[in-house]
Amino acid sequence: MRILITAGPTREYFDDVRFISNASSGKMGYALADEAARRGHHVILVSGPVELPAPAQVEFAPVVTGQEMLEACRRHFDTCDAALMCAAVCDYRPVTRTAGKAPKTTQPHSVILEPAEDICATLGDMKGSRIVIGFALETHEAHARAQAKLQRKNCDLIVLNHPAGIGEDETTVEVFSRVEGWASPRSGLKTEIAAYLIDVLEQM
Questions:
Q1: Could you tell me which CATH class the domain 2-97+111-203 is placed in?
Q2: Is 154 tagged catalytic?
Q3: What's the chain's average pLDDT?
Q4: How far apart are CA 51 and CA 25, in angstroms?
Q5: CA proximity to 25, closest of 47, 44, 46, 57
Q6: At what angle do helices 119-126 and 142-153 cross, to 10 degrees?
Q7: Counting CB atoms within 10 angstroms of each CB, which of 2, 69, 150, 199 has the fewest?
Q8: Half-sphere exposure of 45 (CA within 13 A, CB side)
Q9: Above 90 in pLDDT, residue 162?
Q10: Where are the domains of the chain?
Q11: Global pTM?
Q12: Catalytic residue (choose from 2, 13, 21, 22)
């Protein structure tokens, strides 16, 4: 298969130095890319800025902002059989970006935010017969919110993450599919979870 995988955070700048982001390390997405490539799949890894080397034998597309990630995903998805949308894309971005570095003052500073692109939903709308797997990190009403995301983004399957796994080598996931509902939780190293999720994708 040709598999598109997104990984890591995105950054949304409000001047040329300062930005909004999140704590995603990219470890889960990179583990997925490494496992899929090891099995002989052609992997396109679209990654936000992380402190990880690109896995061997993958087609690597580094990006910074959500808009750049969206453009890269649109460019590559046409030739892919499946997409694993593991990146932690910023939900909001500043409406305006100040040129240079805004000077520090002693007064409060407000930044107006607008919703950023929903990359997973965009691919879900254009997928046709291809498979799109989404990821959801939820802290309240996790199952209900994850299922709602699957419907809203037109995913075939959604992977529910737990906050305790952010930046760690181990994690716990739960998988929900339209056909089989919720699978039992899986815990382990992210490399082990990656093998489990690629197994699921191959079976699909």
A1: alpha beta
A2: no
A3: 95
A4: 7
A5: 47
A6: 50
A7: 199
A8: 29
A9: no
A10: 2-97+111-203
A11: 0.95
A12: 22
